[in-house]
Design goal:
By secondary structure, the chain is an all-alpha fold. Helix content is about 90%, strand content about 0%. The protein is rod-shaped, with a radius of gyration of 22 Å.
Length: about 100
């Protein structure tokens, strides 16, 4: 159970960086239904299986949002780093040509 939860969280974080929200929502919903169905088949009550599905869905959504945030942060910091180095190169080149 713990391994499945960790895998779902890691997949969700990775998905946050690469796929659209609507595609992930469909995927997460299907995984949650499957997870709840497996819990029900293992002998859990309907309420327990439903709560298991909702819990894995919530975990996956939180992981997706974290992945989107981390991906945006990395892209923004790379863009800032790129923008900071560009004026320095231009200034150095123009000073070199004036000499």
């Amino acid at each position: 159970m713990l391994i499945i939860t960790l895998v779902a969280a890691l997949v969700s974080i990775a998905a946050g960086a690469f796929i659209r929200a609507w595609a992930f929502a469909i995927f997460a919903f299907l995984v949650a239904i499957g997870f709840g169905g497996v819990a029900f088949a293992d002998g859990s009550s309907v309420i327990a299986a439903t709560l298991s599905g909702v819990a894995i869905l919530a975990l996956m959504e939180i992981g997706y949002v974290a992945g989107v945030f981390l991906s945006g942060f990395v892209r923004r910091s790379a863009r800032l780093r790129e923008n900071r180095s560009a004026p320095d190169n231009v200034a150095a080149t123009s000073e070199h040509q004036q000499s």
